[in-house]
Every structure is written in structure tokens, then in C-alpha cells.
């Protein structure tokens, strides 16, 4: 089976996100003062070939732990969807 | 018998301080030095490994995150675990934290700015092969040039760094006072450089290899290189 995977990596909530803060200030300068707590992260997508959903999850979690996120400063979440014909991308 | 010390400078794609890191031991200290390409799998006869500054792999994903998977890094990790001296300057420090050889992580500078400037560094301890030639509390003038030098570690790690005397350098004022004003990047405890518990692996954001001639502003970096050389002489 092929699974389309989407990983999101974001700075841990306890860490000040200076990039998010800068974006927040820019949003405020647009006049949208009601916006707060802006945080900037990364979205990474890829396909996984695996026997089943739980095997795909094991592979993806391992990649996130070892490479895509640094657990000292980042948290990650991911979503796995089975690819059926016509959904390759 | 050749009594010279053998330095190896690892070259990653987009390393840009490798020439300086090579020339200090080779030309100023009259030791042996060689470049080792990141795709090589053998370090050879080496006493000290330097991971130079730069932007390895374009800083993709996170600084140092991809470089740590370069083939030579398995050798560097084995060498370090066997007690060999390993030094990471700037991007090299980022790579060492990414491979887990040093605790903590280097985040984006608090100001979000890339900072290229001289800083004052307080030598917190001279109990290491990298600072033995310095006096405890001495202030060194050494440049920084980074966008991601904001040292972060959790509370327990920081406590352990203090208890084990692992903080080698802190950003300070010119009198050695540790102040917020002297902190260029937001690093916790003004940390600029740390060693591992076994004290054979150093990571530091400042560039001592760029402070080796008075005519260029400072030669305080030589104290660190001389410490390393002397650590072999007096072994």
C-alpha cells in the first residue's frame, strides 16, 4: 500500500517563537490587532510504501524522531492517508 | 618519529570556514593538517577533528541536521566516543548537538538577525584541553557570525552542565560580567561554548580560527589552539 504522509513540525509551546512573534507584529501592522499567539512551523509531505497503516505509522514516527524534528525544541504531528488511484500527488 | 599533531578538518558542502580552520594549525602552529571530505569513510591517523563553520547543506531542515548523516560522521562519532578531541565551531557546534555528542540545541537568534561582530567571551573554566592555556575568568575577544546561535537546553540539562563544569565560554562584557546586554543571541545563561562530560568534545559558536592575528583585530583565538597543542605535549 502507498500512504500519503503529512508531517507538521512546530517549536514546543514552552519555547519563545521569535519568528512567530515577528509575523505577529507584521499582522498587527496590517491593522488586525485581534491576532495573537502566532507560531511558525514546517510542513513536510512524502509517500510511504508499507504493508498497512500501522507499519506506515511506525516508519513515519521513526523518521520524525531521528530527523524531521529535534525533540529538544520541537514537537511533531503527522497524518497518513492511503493513496487510491488518482490521488498520487 | 613525527611529534606533530594531526588535525583533520571535515569539509561539508557549504562549509566556508574550512580554510581558516586548516591554516591555523598548519601554518601558524606548524602542525599537520588535512582536509577530509564529508563523503569519506575513513579519518586516518588523526589526533584532533575540527568541524568548521559554514552552512552545511544550506542549513536545510535545521542547522546541522543533514550534515550529521554524512558518511564521515560515523567515524567522527566513533573517534569522539573513543576519547579523541573533536571541536565544532559555529555550524560545527550545531552539527555536534544534532548528533547528540553535545547537549542542547542552537535556535534562531532572538533578534532574528544574522550577527557578525566581535564579542567578549568569559573563560568559565580552564579545566579542559581547549582552555588549559587560559586563566579562569579571563575575557577573550573573538568574532561571531551566525543566525542560529541561541543556545537552548532544558532545566535539567542546564543544571547538569553547571554541576559538571561543562560551560567553557559565556558571552560577557569586557570585564567578564555576564549580562543580558552582552548576550548577542538570547542563549540561556549566555552560553557560547560547552564540552561533553568526558571533556574531549568542544562546541562553540564564536570563531577562534578568525582571531589569530592582531592585525585582524584579535589573536585571542590562538589561546584555544595553543591549549589543544599543549594538551598533547604534556600528556
Write the layout of secondary structure elements.
The complex is a heterodimer of chains A (89) and B (235).
Chain A (H helix, E strand, L loop, with lengths): L1 E10 L6 H12 L11 E9 L3 H16 L5 E9 L7
Antiparallel strand pairs in A: 1-2, 1-3
Chain B lengths: L5 E6 L6 H11 L3 E6 L10 E4 L20 H10 L3 E5 L1 H8 L6 E3 L7 E9 L15 E8 L3 E3 L2 H9 L3 E6 L18 E5 L5 E4 L16 H13 L2
Parallel strand pairs in B: 1-2, 1-3, 3-4, 4-11
Antiparallel strand pairs in B: 5-8, 6-7, 6-9, 9-10, 10-11
Query: Class of the domain at 2-14 and 41-82 in chain A in CATH?
Result: Alpha Beta
Biggest sheet of chain B, open or closed, and with what strands and sense? 9 strands, mixed
- Strand line-up across the major sheet of chain A: 2-1-3
Poorly predicted parts of chain A = none
Strand content of chain A: 25-35%
Radius of gyration of chain B: 16 Å
| CATH T-level topology of the domain at 2-14 and 41-82 in chain A | Mth169, Chain: A
Please report the total strand number of chain B as a whole number: 11
* Coarse shape of chain B: globular
Coarse structural class of chain A:
alpha+beta
Fraction of residues of chain B in helices? 10-25%
Amino acid at each position: 500500500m502507498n500512504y500519503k504522509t503529512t508531517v507538521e513540525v512546530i517549536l514546543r509551546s514552552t519555547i519563545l517563537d521569535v519568528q512567530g512573534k515577528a509575523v505577529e507584529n507584521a499582522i498587527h501592522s496590517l491593522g488586525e490587532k485581534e491576532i495573537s499567539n502566532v507560531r511558525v512551523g514546517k510542513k513536510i509531505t512524502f509517500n510511504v510504501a508499507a504493508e498497512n497503516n500501522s507499519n506506515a505509522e511506525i516508519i513515519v514516527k521513526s523518521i520524525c524522531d531521528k530527523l524531521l524534528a529535534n525533540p529538544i525544541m520541537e514537537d511533531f504531528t503527522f497524518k497518513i492517508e492511503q493513496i487510491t488511484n488518482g490521488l498520487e500527488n | 618519529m613525527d611529534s606533530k599533531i594531526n588535525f583533520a578538518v571535515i569539509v561539508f558542502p557549504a562549509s566556508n570556514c574550512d580554510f581558516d580552520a586548516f591554516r591555523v594549525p598548519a601554518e601558524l602552529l606548524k602542525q599537520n593538517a588535512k582536509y577530509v571530505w564529508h563523503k569519506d569513510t575513513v579519518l586516518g591517523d588523526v589526533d584532533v577533528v575540527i568541524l568548521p563553520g559554514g552552512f552545511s547543506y544550506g542549513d536545510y531542515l535545521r542547522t546541522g541536521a543533514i550534515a550529521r548523516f554524512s558518511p564521515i560522521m560515523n567515524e567522527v562519532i566513533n573517534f569522539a566516543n573513543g576519547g579523541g578531541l573533536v571541536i565544532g565551531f559555529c555550524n560545527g557546534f550545531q552539527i555536534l548537538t544534532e548528533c547528540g555528542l553535545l547537549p542542547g540545541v542552537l535556535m534562531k537568534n532572538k533578534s532574528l538577525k544574522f550577527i557578525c561582530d566581535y564579542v567578549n567571551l568569559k573563560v568559565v573554566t580552564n579545566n579542559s584541553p581547549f582552555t588549559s592555556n587560559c586563566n579562569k575568568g579571563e575575557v577573550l575577544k573573538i568574532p561571531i557570525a551566525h543566525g542560529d546561535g541561541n543556545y537552548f537546553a532544558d532545566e535539567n540539562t542546564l543544571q547538569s552542565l553547571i554541576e559538571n563544569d561543562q560551560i567553557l565560554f559565556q558571552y560577557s562584557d569586557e570585564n567578564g560580567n555576564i549580562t543580558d546586554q552582552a548576550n548577542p543571541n538570547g542563549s540561556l545563561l549566555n552560553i557560547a561554548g560547552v564540552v561533553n562530560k568526558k571533556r574531549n568534545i568542544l562546541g562553540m559558536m564564536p570563531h577562534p580560527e578568525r582571531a589569530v592575528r592582531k592585525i585582524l583585530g584579535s589573536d585571542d583565538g590562538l589561546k584555544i589552539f595553543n591549549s589543544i597543542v599543549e594538551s598533547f605535549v604534556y600528556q
